[in-house]
Amino acid sequence: MKSFDTYFPTKLIFGEGTIQRLGETARAYGRKAMIVTTGSDMKDFGILDKALESMRGAGISCEVFSAVEQNPKDYNVDHGVRVYRETGCEMTVGLGGGSAMDAAKAIAMIARNGGVVMDYMPGQPRYGEELTETEPCICVTTTAGTGSEATYFAVVTNTVTHEKPGLGCPCMMPVAAIIDPELMLSVPRRVTAQTGVDVFFHAMEAYLSTVATPYTDMVALEAMRIVARYLPRVLEAPQDREARGQMAWANTLGGIAIVFAATCGLHAIGHSISGVTDIPHGRALSIAAVSFMEYTCEADFPRYARVARILGADPSLSDEEAARQSPALMKKFLEDAGMETRLGSLGVREDQIDQIAGIAVSSMSYCMSVTLRPLNGDDIAAILRKAL
Fold it and tell me: What span, in angstroms and rounded, lies between the C-alpha atoms of 23 and 14?
């Protein structure tokens, strides 16, 4: 059996109504918090008011910072750091989906360590620096999608190069994460689908990674099984609390899986598509997924067969037969969720393919290297052309 280490420092608080525990959780880290959100959604859905009420009840004052865009940009994070310092905050609270949580983690790290977010991007002066401290960050996830509440990654778009590499070091793990499925009841169907397939991709890529371990296999397989069973159910009945709860848990499991096993080549492609087009992460992954699986499934028939069987392959098929069916089964899974599976459907052009492939090479080389079939720029371009 493969040797591995694992350590998970984030306190996970799971269950309906746990947003009420935000204040008591935050009290250990100071008396003023920056609540990081994207736009007005959290206010419009009444979730921000629940968070503020809990914080006030614990004697914590709050600075609400809502100037974070979908796919957070470098200037969003730098703006947040300035506000954090100017208002005397002592912690961040990421309230929302992955964009809010990633921005909150990045703001907390830079507020403690100095500089601007660009300093920590690939090829920049502080990239790869082994940081040991960050300001405390609590994540409150309101979607079942990114798993960001259980990772130390912060995906931020470099607006100069259009790279979307992310940054992260173990000290950036949230001190606590609140996973309250009630907060997800108001999520629109389209967002539920986009984030739900992202959960599956996180788990699948962790399983199809060369650095997978027995621990991450256990977590990833369970997450994939949950999504395959409950995503169709929650799309059919958005107020189904059991289905929402199951998807919320699968989301967190997916985050745990990629902390220790990483995502692989599909995320390298998806991040690069999103960096160029600014489309949501789940959509970017969906339009490349089928071609990615067609291109790589021969690398490990038993593992791809396991994914295929979770997606509904006939259990009597051999591993090779099941693995070769995995792209078609993935296509059906995505289309049943209402997701696009072709680049052209989102307006991605032939003349953008080399740019997207180049960005994958320059900013996501690690993910490419841990794919069961290692990928280079030509491979990425071939996958993208296959997906047009």
Answer: 15
Alpha-carbon span 249 to 227, nearest angstrom: 10
Contacts of 304 (CB under 8 A, 6+ apart): 208, 293, 296, 297, 322, 323, 326
Helices (H), 6-131: 22-26, 41-44, 47-57, 74-86, 98-113
Whether residue 92 contacts residue 148, with contact meaning beta carbons closer than 8 Å, is answered with: no
- Distance between CA 226 and CA 334 in Å, rounded? 15
* Distance, CA of 270 to CA of 266 (rounded, Å): 6
Helix (H, G, I), strand (E, B) or coil at 290: helix
Rounded CA separation 337/196 (Å): 9
- CA-to-CA distance for 80 and 57, rounded, in angstroms? 25
Instruction: Profile the chain (388 residues) by mean pLDDT over runs of 10 residues.
Output: 87 98 98 96 96 98 96 96 98 96 98 95 85 97 94 92 85 98 95 96 98 97 98 97 98 96 94 86 92 98 98 98 98 97 83 91 91 95 93
Task: Centre a 10 Å sphere on the Cβ of residue 349 and count the other Cβ atoms it contains.
Answer: 10
Contact 189, 199 (CB under 8 A): no
CA distance 247 to 202: 13
Closest CA to 137 of 100, 86, 184, 179: 100
pLDDT of residue 99: 94
Residue 156, φ and ψ in degrees, nearest 5: -130, 135
Rounded Cα distance, 4 and 212, in Å: 9
Q: Which residue's structure tokens are 């991040």?
A: 271
Nearest 5 degrees, angle CA 277-CA 280-CA 282? 120
CB 203 within 8 Å of CB 164: no
Contact 306, 300 (CB under 8 A): no
CB atoms within 10 A of CB 152: 21
Helix (H) or strand (E) holding 140: strand 137-141
Length of the chain equals 388
Residues 63 and 111: their CA atoms lie apart, in Å, by: 15
Q: Are strands 91-96 and 32-36 parallel, antiparallel or unpaired?
A: parallel
Tell me the two tokens of residue 223: 């997450």
The answer to whether the CB of 80 falls within 8 A of the CB of 66 is no
> SS3 of 202, please?
helix
Classify the C-alpha dihedral 221-222-223-226 as positive or negative.
positive
Neighbours of 16 (CB within 10 A): 15
